[in-house]
Amino acid sequence: MGLKIEKITLRQIRMPLVHFFETSFGRTTERHIILVEVAADGISGWGEVTAGENPFYNEEWTEAAWIILRDYVAPRVAGRKLAGPEEVAPLSQHIRGHRMARGGLETAVWDLAARRNGVPLWSEIGGGDHKEIACGVSIGIQDSVAQLLEKIETELAAGYQRIKIKIKPGWDVDVIREVRRRFPSIRLMADANSAYTLADSDRLRQLDEFYLMMIEQPLSDDDIIDHAVLQSRLETPICLDECIRSARHAEQAIRLKACRIINIKLGRVGGFLEARRVHDLAAHAGIPVWCGGMLESGIGRAHNIALSTLPNFTLPGDVSASKRYWAQDIIDPPVEVTPRGTIVVSRDPGLGYGIDRDYIGRLLVREETVS
To answer: Is there a catalytic annotation at residue 265?
Structure first.
């Protein structure tokens, strides 16, 4: 039975973070998030656009994503009779880039299909190999090393299985040395968010002594070739993030030996269809993957949980508890992490969490409908 998308509602909400989050390209204190609700047969599915407030992680940002969704993506899907959610992505594939905007709608249709079929989202996408998701945390650049060490202590006490810290020139080798001195045996990785160049190879090589799980995206966000050169100079595995926007990019990176690990973010690759292709290709090549985070609300977080049930997600992802980011989340119940550092996967239909429409209404900045 097909799906006819009767209505697409876009909502922008403003959510303050409980603590600032800083990367090599800036500090975030609140999120402006676009939510996508698609309706068919009296049922709604929900998606989230993971673009940031500014075009710093990649070229997308909230304001542009709203226009792309309203004027280009939604009109190509609204009123369409679809055989299934896998038909959504091809309808907008001729739009250059803007994968986060396109993915926000695509993931909503997957949720809609799962709800209508009465199955969990992870089942709809072909997942379910993991009934509990191993969780790590991403800790941004802090005001001091002492503050960073305190935050790591807090997260380890909460049970998280892996710690990721953001680095940049001037906040890297000496900082990680202090972390290793304090926590010699934890699973630790560093995320550079493209803060370095190949000229920094000698400095990055110094990180080999700290037996990190990986260094994530040290070089340019659009580079694969220099990462291959850098990986040949390092013992520490390189994990690629920003530059893997499609299965084709993943295939090129693997062929060039530019990485030994891949981070998959739903928004960055444009939704579940392409995420599964990247996952399958990496699995075939023996490259482990994990799910990255973009400071999502509970809706995006629930999508990440579903994605993480696919079999090759063998490393702890950045899928953590709602309370790490939000005083109150827009889903009910919020995402919670067990004392053993896992999320138990819901078996309820769709996302597996209720949508708090009242709270979304209180956070609302604007709303538009395409029908």
So the answer is: yes
Q: What is the pLDDT of residue 301?
A: 97
pLDDT of 120 over the 90 cut: yes
Beta bridge partners of 238: 215
CA 303, CA 299: separation in Å to the nearest integer? 7
For residue 83, pLDDT over 80 is answered with yes
Cα-Cα-Cα-Cα dihedral sign, residues 257, 258, 259, 265: negative
CATH code assigned to 124-344? 3.20.20.120
For residue 255, the tally of other CB atoms under 10 A from its CB is 11
Could you say which of 7, 81, 131, 265 is catalytic? 265
Quote the percentage of the chain above a pLDDT of 90.
Answer: 96
Where do the CATH 3.20.20.120 domains begin and end in the chain?
124-344
pLDDT of residue 1: 61
- CA–CA gap between residue 303 and residue 344 (Å, rounded): 14
Q: Of the residues 4, 81, 131, 166, which is catalytic? A: 166
Percent of the chain with pLDDT over 70: 100
**147: enclosing H helix or E strand:** helix 145-157
- What six digits make up the tokens of 254? 């693997």
At residue 352, the pLDDT reads: 97
Question: Which residue ranges does the chain devote to CATH 3.30.390.10?
Answer: 3-118+356-370
Cα(33)–Cα(294) distance, integer angstroms: 11
* 3-state SS, residue 329: coil
Catalytic residue check, 81: no
Range 3-118+356-370 has CATH code 3.30.390.10: yes
Output the pTM of the full model: 0.96
pLDDT in tens, 301-335: 999 999 999 999 999 999 999 999 999 999 999 99
Residue of 106, 10, 127, 16 whose CA lies nearest to 62 = 10
